[in-house]
Specification:
This protein has five helices and two strands. It is mainly α. A two-stranded antiparallel sheet has the order 1-2. Strand 1 and strand 2 form a beta hairpin. The C terminus is likely disordered. Keywords: Repeat. One of its GO terms (molecular function) is calcium channel activity.
Length: 137
Amino acid sequence: MLIAMMGNTYTTVIAQAEKAWRQQYAQIVMVLERSVKREKLAACQLEYSIKLSDGGDSGMETRGLMVIKQTKKTRARQRKQAISNWKLIGRKVIKTVQHYGVDVAMYKLHSHERFTSLTDDVVGGARGERLSTSRGW
């Protein structure tokens, strides 16, 4: 149950981070658009937009932006990825404890070193084969 709760927390944090990233990206685009002259903006909009309709009697054409590729992660997909990440980290911790022993592994896992660089020499990538370590611990 603890792993499920941690997976749900991970999913929530990732969703919030993605939302914050999109907001920051939108703010950057707005700042850049404000720094460019109106004539240049109009030329860029004509270049990158597509014609939707002529406008008929009013004489104004309607234009829009076409989305070429849009990726949308569903909650189920995010949850599946979170569970997969927790399982991967769990396997790396177990391999590290088996390789170094409990005391040294606890010190290494709670130190300021990158966890992935520590376990890459213990766990051979996705295959899980044991490699020799060059650190001498």
